[in-house]
Amino acid sequence: MSTSDPADDIAEALARLRGRRPHGPGHAHGGPHGHRGGPHEGRPPRPGPWAGGPGGRFAAPAWMRMLEALAAASAPLSVSEIAEAVGVDQPRASRLVQQGVERGFVQREADPDDARRTRIALTDTGRRVARGAKGERRQALSRALEAFTDTERAELARLLNKLADNWGPGA
């Protein structure tokens, strides 16, 4: 845990866990969010600013993870790096990038070290969408934590960060 505000620590741990979705059976076909069952099963997902227009949904969970990964990166990312950060395979990451380019949220740039490769960067529009989604999640988290005591917030932050530290291959 890096900050004195447990809400910030919780938000960071949740962001770390979001990028570490399990791969394998059920991931790609386990429903709109890569899982089966749960309290939201059968409900249509709520579209956000990344929605593709009337009736079109734009891969919201993976899409937002891609925007967040690009926003957090110190330099443009390769499609492979995006796939790793988002928790999807490379073909899915390529489709997300293509959709992002079509909507003006990301752009392809030549890799300065290898002209055969491209890097992916956020556009100004993509940066605004990523910043807005992060702010909305932070507000929702703060509202949810209002019912917790200071001690409970700190304990939740500690446990979520412990989970995020130990989640992954071989854990």
Write the layout of secondary structure elements.
Blueprint: H1 6-18, H2 60-72, H3 79-86, H4 90-103, E1 106-111, E2 114-122, H5 124-145, H6 150-166
Features:
mainly alpha, 171 residues, two-stranded antiparallel sheet
Order the strands across the largest sheet as they lie in space.
Answer: 1-2
The topology string of helices and strands comes to HHHHEEHH
So, the CATH homologous superfamily? Winged helix-like DNA-binding domain superfamily/Winged helix DNA-binding domain
Percent strand equals 5-15%
- Measured distance between first and last alpha carbons: 19 Å
Which quaternary structure do these chains form? single chain
Q: What's the number of helices?
A: 6
Q: So what's the CATH class?
A: Mainly Alpha
Query: What is the annotated CATH architecture?
Result: Orthogonal Bundle
The largest pleated sheet is described as: 2 strands, antiparallel
User: Mean pLDDT, rounded to whole units?
Assistant: 74
Shape type: elongated
Overall radius of gyration? 17 Å
Poorly predicted spans: 21-59
- Kindly give the count of domains: 1
Report the count of strand segments.
2
Helix content: 40-55%
The CATH topology is what?
Arc Repressor Mutant, subunit A
Secondary-structure-derived class: mainly alpha
